[in-house]
Amino acid sequence: MSRHFRQAKILEVIEKTPIYTQDEIAVFLKASGFKITQATVSRDIKDLGLIKIPYGDKLRYTRDVDKSVMLNKIKDIFKTAMVSYEQVGNTIVLKTLNGMAHAASAMIEQLNHCGIVGCIAGIDTVFVIVREVEDGQGLIQIIEQIITD
Fold first, then answer.
1. What phi and psi, each to the nearest 5 degrees, are found at residue 123?
2. For residue 60, which of 125, 106, 14, 1 has the smallest C-alpha distance?
3. Given CA atoms 110, 111, 113, 116 in this order, what sign does their dihedral have?
């Protein structure tokens, strides 16, 4: 599996679960089917700009506070993940590579587009609900811009 898939999985787990060590990341990745080494995990942490912040009496991994760097990483993952997209009324349906819907959903949510009501991500599909059809058209334009950048 590619570096983008692996890094998307890392982002997914640190968003949902307090992760305190590189070993915990390695265990999660191996359980998800990745063949990795400690050096790979270390490089991914650096590439993703992950930092440790206080969480209770421990330090957990999180995204770097420099959101512009992180947004660029997520955009790269988004571009890799996207297969197709379509607007149906006030819903945008995004089709992704298998296992990448959560990463694509994270990118959409990072946009903070005022017309987005919410996102629902499965394994390879994301449903984005927008308030008005016009909001969807605007979101499609943003998606196209991200993909062609």
1. -90, -45
2. 14
3. negative
pLDDT of the chain, 149 residues: tens digit per residue: 688 889 988 998 998 889 999 999 999 999 999 999 999 999 999 888 888 887 777 888 987 655 556 667 778 889 999 999 999 999 999 999 999 999 899 889 877 778 899 999 999 999 999 999 999 999 999 999 889 87
Tokens 């297969």 — which residue?
83
Confirm whether pTM is higher than 0.70: no
